[in-house]
Amino acid sequence: MPVITDIEDLKRIYRRRTPKMFYDYCESGSWTEQTFRENSSDFDRIYFRQRVAVDLTNRSTRTQMIGQDVAMPVALAPVGLTGMQSADGEIKAARAAEKFGVPFTLSTMSICSIEAVAEATTKPFWFQVYVMKDDDYLARLIQRAKDAKCSALVVTLDLQVLGQRHMDIKNGLSAPPKPTLSNIANLSTKWRWGLGMLGTKNRQFGNVVGHVKGISDPSSLMSWTAEQFDPALDWAKIEKIRDMWGGKLILKGIMEAEDARRAAQIGADAIIVSNHGGRQLDGALSTIRALEPILEAVGDQTEVHLDGGIRSGQDVLKALAMGAKGTYIGRAFVYGLGAMGEAGVTRALEVIHKELDVSMAFCGHRDINDVNREILRVPRGFSGDWD
Ligand code: GLV
């Protein structure tokens, strides 16, 4: 195995080994990619306070997210098409997460189905749902997640319509890729990926194909979202989903205090401050800047989690110190997956865990549950003073 010291190392190998269209899918933000970039770069504007002469023995990053024990407060985010980054990618990532002791969230737009992931794992995972127009399909999907014993439902609220990612259009993104000349030329250099794909049956959207009627092109995420996702989604429908599910509920895509209050009112166990990794509303604030007013509004009523831009344990520590109770990594684990399959996801988690643990120690703490804003220097006005 190559020597991997940070998430960037995994990304370099991932880029070499993965078909261009899936690398671009992962690595894009919408339109100008301002929000995609700032999700990461805004973490760099926050600094730590180094402390010394503190007993640093017996450190722990163990805590809970929505009442479930986690080895560190870093869940794997739902990422569409993960099984195109590496054959059976969702199964590999779920297994790595299970062994590490962090939650794995399966996307509706996964390649491996809910059932396939449940069969390949031993502990409950979380399921992310997109709200569809077809109520019967939505009800069946939620029932399938219940049957698979998923321990939380993550409802994504910011993808009723799809933000434009230029490269996906230029590349003709589809799962599986269409046999065009440029795809064949690119795939022929990705033998490791190709061999993996030849060895699996999971090559289409496993939660969708065969379960829903009337999709003009089942291999296209873009046509699928345009045809099936519900642009009429409102809070009444979210309450209906809450009642259909009846278990732990996480609402994802909250960026404003007003929406956070509504989410807390309907009884969400957690909300995720998320702008979909900068893939939807370009020009939205980074999530780390959006966090504080949301915590002020609902921090005592529901758990506030954060995703977007996290590429290191230091980023995780900053998010936690700012007040988030949990964080998610999406791209960071996909880099590991595309680079080295399950072992790469494990490596990504190890890298982030070590960075989190040692940085926490430098800040004078032994227990992640004791970390707070006092370890940070946050620039004045960081969370904004907006008209
Ligand atoms: C889907 O969730 C996407 O962002 O592509």
UniProtKB/TrEMBL annotation:
Keywords: Flavoprotein, FMN, Oxidoreductase
CDD domains for the chain: alpha_hydroxyacid_oxid_FMN
Cofactor dependence: FMN
Residues involved in FMN binding: 78-80, 107, 128, 130, 156, 252, 274, 307-311, 330-331
InterPro entries: Aldolase_TIM, Alpha-hydoxy_acid_DH_FMN, FMN-dep_DH, FMN_HAD, FMN_hydac_DH_AS
Family: Belongs to the FMN-dependent alpha-hydroxy acid dehydrogenase family.
UniProt-recorded name of the protein: L-lactate dehydrogenase
Organism: Maritimibacter harenae
